[in-house]
Design goal:
The chain is α/β, with parallel strands linked by helices and about 260 residues long. It has helices at about 20-30, 80-95, 110-120, 135-145, 180-195, 200, 205, 210-215, 225-230; strands at about 5-10, 35-45, 50-55, 100, 125-130, 155-160, 240-245, 250-260.
Amino acid sequence: MMPSLFIAHGAPLLAVENNEYTQFLNQLGDSLPRPKAIVLFSAHWESRVQKVSEVDEYDTIYDFGGFDPALYTIKYPAKGSQGISSEIMDLFRANGIPFDIETRRGLDHGAWVVLRLLYPNADVPVIAMSVNPALTPEEQYKVGKSLAALRAKEVLIIGSGGTVHNLRAVNFADNGQVDTWAVEFDDWLAHHLHTWDTNSLFKYDSLAPNAQYAVPPYGNEHFVPIFYAMGASDDNKTAKLLHRSFRYGNLSHSVWQFGE
């Protein structure tokens, strides 16, 4: 049985950096059982109706500006899997999840930065998935839960985003200090994830300390992938923090494993 994962994709520079976090993700790819395919929900693909990719080979999307020119030369030519895409559609139909098929869109940096660190050879099929920040956390969790059966078929389900992601608060000078408000929010989140307290987690915006700063209303798309990933392991209900660090004062680099 594959776990499901929530992985922070940080800033695009991770794709060309060698640091504690990139080294961890390299090692994580080596330590996981080899997946048959990867289903990835990216914070950088928003849609009001759930999108399911059915793509033969993905283009690489550079959905950012002003960074190291080397970033714009990177290619991650992952292939899709029509078989797994079809299984996802069947599961969505069975669980009453509306969806649309996407046949052209490439992989945004929320997807390819993470995937390239885990599987640098682009040799694992990928099914890209959108997120809908307008749904309630319960509804996002339900979308993930509907795909739980894929884990028994060696499919790795990933939510890619960030637990603390407020671009108006980051300090790109990065003096190594971490803002207290970010740690307090992330500590609250960790406690309720470890206990699988969905009642509290689904109300994080009103219950968690500093929630409106850690997950600003204009930027909740980076937080919600955690509910898709968590829902995919509803049949096991275990959560393990595999890594946590911060960059730029408060931008979280956290990796959570759900299920076993």
